[in-house]
Design goal:
single chain, about 100 residues, mainly beta, 8-stranded antiparallel β-sheet, 8 strands, about 0% helix
C-alpha cells in the first residue's frame, strides 16, 4: 500500500490516510508501522531536482486536533533514551511496511 499522505475530516474528526494511485484511500492508525520515502537533490543543469531515495521506517503517530500533524517515530537517542521523531509533511510518499519486516 504505497501512495501520498493526505488528511480528511469526517464526523469523527481528522484522519490521515494514504491516497493510492487508483484514487482509493487506505486509512492508517496510530501505533502502526509506516515508511516514508526520502528524497535527495541532484544537479540538473544549472539547478537541482529532487529524486526519490531510501525509505525510512518507523511508527506512525498523530496529533489530530485543530492543525493535524503526522509523526514518524524512528528510534531513540543514546544514552538519554528520548524518542526521535519528525513531522511527515502532507503530500509525502508513504507506504505500509511489507509483511515480514
Amino acid at each position: 500500500m504505497e501512495g501520498i499522505l493526505r488528511v480528511k475530516k469526517d464526523s469523527g474528526g481528522y484522519r490521515h490516510y494514504i491516497e493510492l494511485e487508483s484514487g482509493e484511500h487506505e486509512d492508517i492508525s496510530c501505533g502502526h508501522g509506516l515508511e516514508v520515502q526520502l528524497g535527495v537533490c541532484v544537479p540538473d543543469g544549472e539547478s537541482e531536482k529532487m529524486v526519490p531515495a531510501a525509505w525510512i521506517s518507523g511508527r506512525y503517530e498523530a496529533h489530530l486536533m485543530e492543525i493535524p500533524e503526522a509523526y514518524l517515530y524512528f528510534g531513540y537517542s543514546y544514552p538519554a533514551g528520548y524518542p526521535l521523531k519528525f513531522i511527515i509533511p502532507l503530500g509525502s510518499r508513504v507506504r505500509k511496511p511489507r509483511r515480514g519486516k
